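Milestone 3.1: sequence recovery, worked example.
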C-alpha cells in the first residue's frame, strides 16, 4: 500500500475512514469524471464545427456558394449540440437537489457517454467528407449524411437525459 505523499492525500485518506464521507468522495469523483467527459465530448463537437466553418470559408474563397446556407445551418446545430452536452445535468447531485442519481446509474451514464464518443467520430468523418466532396450535389448529400449522424447523437443524448430523470434517489448514508 502506498503512503500518502502530500497533505491533500493524507486528508483524503483520513476522510475515507469517516462513515459517509467515503461515499461522498466517491460520488464527487464520479461527478467530476462525468463533467470532464462531457467537456471532452463538447470539445470534439466544437472541433467538427470549426472544420465545417473552415470548409465554408474555403468554399466562399473558391466562389462555390451553393452549399453555404445548408453548411451554416449544420454548423449552428453542431454548436447547439456542443452546448447541450457541455451544460447537461451531470452525475450525482447533492442531497437537496431535485435530480439525484445513484452510483450505479452514474456508472451507466458514464458508459453511455463513452458510447457517444463513437458517434462523434462518425460526425467528424462526415464533416471531413463534406470538405472532400467534388461537386455541389455531392457536398449537399454529404451535409445531409452528417446531419443524420448529428440527429442520431441528439436522440442518444436525449436518452441520457431520460436516464437521469428516471434515476431513483440514492440511499442516504447512516
Amino acid at each position: 500500500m502506498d503512503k500518502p505523499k502530500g497533505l491533500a492525500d493524507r486528508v483524503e485518506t483520513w476522510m475515507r475512514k469517516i462513515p459517509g464521507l467515503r461515499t461522498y468522495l466517491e460520488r464527487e469523483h464520479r461527478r467530476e469524471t462525468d463533467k470532464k467527459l462531457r467537456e471532452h465530448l463538447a470539445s470534439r463537437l466544437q472541433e467538427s464545427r470549426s472544420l465545417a466553418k473552415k470548409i465554408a470559408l474555403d468554399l466562399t474563397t473558391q466562389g462555390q456558394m451553393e452549399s453555404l446556407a445548408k453548411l451554416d445551418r449544420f454548423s449552428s446545430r453542431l454548436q447547439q449540440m456542443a452546448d447541450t452536452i457541455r451544460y447537461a445535468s451531470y452525475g450525482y447531485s447533492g442531497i437537496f437537489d431535485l435530480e439525484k442519481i445513484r452510483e450505479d446509474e452514474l456508472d451507466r451514464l458514464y458508459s453511455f457517454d463513452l458510447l457517444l464518443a463513437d458517434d462523434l467520430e462518425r460526425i467528424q468523418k462526415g464533416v471531413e467528407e463534406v470538405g472532400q466532396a467534388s461537386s455541389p450535389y455531392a457536398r449537399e448529400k454529404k451535409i445531409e449524411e452528417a446531419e443524420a449522424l448529428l440527429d442520431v447523437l441528439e436522440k442518444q443524448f436525449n436518452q441520457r437525459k431520460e436516464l437521469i430523470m428516471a434515476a431513483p434517489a440514492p440511499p442516504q448514508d447512516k
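Residues 92-99, 169-174 have pLDDT under 50 and may be disordered. The CA atoms of residues 108 and 163 lie 9 Å apart.
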